Fold:
Amino acid sequence: MHYKSAVFLALYGWVPLVLCLFSILPPRKALLIGFIGGWLFLPVAIIKVTALPPYSKLTAASYAGLLGTVIFAPKLLLSFRPRWFDIPMLVMCITPMITSINNGLGYYDGGSAVIEKVVLWGLPYFLGRIYFPDWESITELGKAIILGGLIYCPFCWFEMKMSPQLHKMVYGFFQNDFAQTLRMGGYRPMVFLQHGLAVAMWMNGAALIAMWMWMSGSMKKLLGMPMFVLVPTLLGTAILVRSLGGMLMLMAGVGALLTIRLLRTPVPLLALVMVAPIYMTMRAGGYWTGEWALHKSEQYFGPERTQSFLVRVNAENLLSQRAMEQPWFGWGRWNRNRVTDARGHDSTPTDGLWILTLGINGVIGLVALTVVILMPPLLVWVRCPVKLWSHPGVAATAAIAVLLALHMIDNILNAMLDPVFAMAIGALAGVQPSIRAQLRRMAHRQQAVNAGPSPQSPPAQRPQPVGAAAVTRG
Structure:
């Protein structure tokens, strides 16, 4: 494939551009622009680099963020303290080495696979851990995602009307099959992402966070515009990108947050968290063939969507059987996990991240990936009761927690890594302090005040109210 000079200029120029941002902006703001801007506007292209993962919009954001931190904010690197909840990410990053050795592919292949996993997952996670350590900083992350969604709206509207042309106009080529943009009597925008489904996931995430932060009172305006205007704009655009799965997940996310707010129960979050593990266990173990879901899909969504789902189900059946021939650590890279016909041609599409991970890195790799994505929402629940999830200081974190659960569900059908979501995983995994512990400390102080000071002791300090300051500071 011939890449125009604009592709090389954009990809190779992104790291020095972000470094310039680090030199003139606060580090956190520069990091957010580097990750979100790179994800939304860099070309969907891959440049092969010797001994390193292919250079792309995914790796450019990680390299730029790490270099900017080393040069302009080295104290943040020293602030990192490994914790027990970092273990799943560590396991996910080192599993490829065991896979390569187990399959006789050698230490060089294993080392290359480990570096690739570290760059794509480990670095965004690490940067999320050190840049967003508390509830207040995650609120900034939520606002940045919302702003990214708002910036993408005009580009989505253009391609809804004129068809997906922006990537070709700027970089000289279509990033995916144009036929897949025809949906529901119109065009599904791709803008500068690899597929319309990735656009749908991004817009749904921005809309979900914006709606929850607005309803909680966490954010009433953005860029001088009232949220009662911006939220419907994001929700409308998210629906109009014409992704049925995206619409269903947006409805599930909104419904979960509203139910949590009304009933003060974690059940909706737990239900979302359990969808992907149950599905993957049933499918990989051969306990469920998918026939019931196919029947319901045809009944409610018509034969076109059912045919697409049928292809996925049949492919998963074959790929699961192949994966179970090497169950624990998988087949490794180089398409050894794929199913081929008699002529050696690939005979099954491999779309879902879960089935890719199962085939390449086995059950161990899949469990690690699942825990990496789904543990942070559960940790948020442990550290902050759901009755406080509509509090202005917690709203952004709560919305991102639900979004990560939806992201794992999306990985059942798609394999579209988003570095911003990977960074959010690190942020939520390490967010402190525990609101539960803080409330207990406040209760103890209140009891001391009610009991009254003893003659020999100094007066007890007045307890802080449960407000934004109590939520955002330890």
Strands lie at 182-183, 186-187, 221-222, 225-226.
